[in-house]
Amino acid sequence: MLHISTNNIIEMTRGDTVEIPLHIFFNNPSFRNIAYFPNIHDKIYFAIMEPNQPFEEAIVKKIYEYNDVDQLTGVVNVKLDSYETEFLAPGNYYYTVKILKKTP
């Protein structure tokens, strides 16, 4: 089961394999609602953490690159395989997305 609310709360059943469409937008009032399209050198990090756990100690970390982004929509499909969540205790977890921008 996967449910993503309008305020970006993700609900899923542990042990399920899911794909979460990740839409990335500029965080600048001047560029409101403009999709971010990474360049070939950028990396996108997705992490799942327990409450108050730092990003560096995340339970699940995924790295996506230029080829993982749909070039028409800017969407990255974050795939969580069953083995990555099957042993997590029921409860609330937090996710963070970070982008490492590199220039050639």
End-to-end separation? 41 Å
Shape: globular
What does the average pLDDT come to? 88
Indicate the percent of residues in helices.
under 10%
Write down the domain tally. Answer: 1
Tell me about this structure.
With 104 residues, the chain is mostly beta strands. The chain has a single domain (2-100), classed as Sandwich (Immunoglobulin-like), CATH 2.60.40. It has one helix and seven strands. The protein has one helix spanning 82-85, and strands at 2-4, 10-12, 18-23, 43-49, 60-65, 75-80, 94-100. The protein starts with a strand and ends with a strand.
Topology of this protein?
Layout: E1 2-4, E2 10-12, E3 18-23, E4 43-49, E5 60-65, E6 75-80, H1 82-85, E7 94-100
Antiparallel strand pairs: 1-2, 3-6, 4-5, 4-7
Summarize the structure.
The protein is mainly beta. Helix content is 4%, strand content 37%.
Offer a few descriptive terms.
single chain, 104 residues, mainly beta, Immunoglobulin-like, three-stranded antiparallel β-sheet, two-stranded antiparallel sheet
